[in-house]
Amino acid sequence: MSGGAKILVKLGGTLLDDAASRDALARQIAGAGRAGARIVVVHGGGKQMTRYLAERGVESRFVDGLRVTTPEIVDAMLKVFAGTVNHELVASLNRAGSLAVGLSGIDAFLVEAEQMDPRLGAVGRVTRSNPALLEMLTGHGYLPVVACVAGDRAGAVYNVNGDQMAVACAAAFGAAQLIFLTDVEGVLDEQKKVRSTLTRGQSKALIDAGIATGGMRAKLNAALAALDGGVGQVRIAPGAAERVLERLLGGEPIGTAMVADEESTQ
């Protein structure tokens, strides 16, 4: 069972917050696996995390879009990201016919990190990803589902941006495609229209001009890092679109495709 194209799918936490949306995506991912692809899923859970903390009277503080991660929030992060969100998704995938395995970056040093900034607490910057576990599992027909939690060799635990986690895993795994399924239609240009393709230079121009900001700016930077890391193709697409993964893998131009060269785009 070692053959098949390697695909990494990053699921935003918003898409997983609703059971119907989660199950629909799980069916598509399971279907791609049955068709022969070797799939790894990386997921976020920021919306669920914020709600969990608010229910317990803990205010979420952000610096430059990153959640300040105190020891109390590390505990919550493990419960939410690596606990509830991860295992609900694993259950949906198994119900759809996959052999899903819930993981985080801590497992077998899958993703290692270091502290990004003392002001942010236990927010991590990825330093390396070790693909052996992903290779072993996908090579035997299992579907790894990775929560965006990383660690280091000293046993520290870090909150890692989900897009950066996805890029690290995709590059180490040698993915032919990295697909970001999000809650937006794709990357918008200055006319608020979805760009079907973007080169490196065009992506950087959108960032420099302040058109791509916040989460989309982070996603574009992550996509560029994936291309630099050797990932063949990167797509940013709406996860709520009907049969989106099936259509993307069939070559339909949904959302935005990131391309490495400067060929003409529209």
What does this entry show, briefly?
The chain is an alpha/beta fold and 266 residues long. The protein is built from nine helices and 14 strands. Strand 3 and strand 4 form a beta hairpin.
Structural write-up:
The model has no long low-confidence stretch (mean pLDDT 93). The chain folds into two domains: 1-175, Acetylglutamate kinase-like (Carbamate kinase), CATH 3.40.1160; 181-266, no CATH class. It has an eight-stranded mixed β-sheet, with helices on both faces. Strands 3-4 form a two-stranded antiparallel sheet. Helix content is 39%, strand content 23%. By secondary structure, it is an alpha/beta fold.
Instruction: Point out poorly predicted stretches.
Output: none
Helicity range of the residues? 25-40%
In the CATH hierarchy, what is the architecture of the largest domain at level 2? 3-Layer(aba) Sandwich
Q: What structural category do the secondary elements indicate?
A: alpha/beta
State the end-to-end CA separation.
Answer: 39 Å
Order of helices and strands: EHHEHEEHEEEHEEEHEEHHEHE
**Number of DSSP-assigned strands:** 14
Broad shape = globular
Number of separate domains: 2
Give the full name of the CATH homologous superfamily of the largest domain: Acetylglutamate kinase-like
Percent strand equals 15-25%
Radius of gyration: 17 Å
* Tally of DSSP helical segments: 9
CATH secondary-structure class of the largest domain: Alpha Beta
Question: What is CATH's topology name of the largest domain?
Answer: Carbamate kinase
**What is the makeup of the main sheet?**
8 strands, mixed
Strand order of the largest sheet: 5-8-2-1-11-13-14-12
* Mean pLDDT over all positions: 93
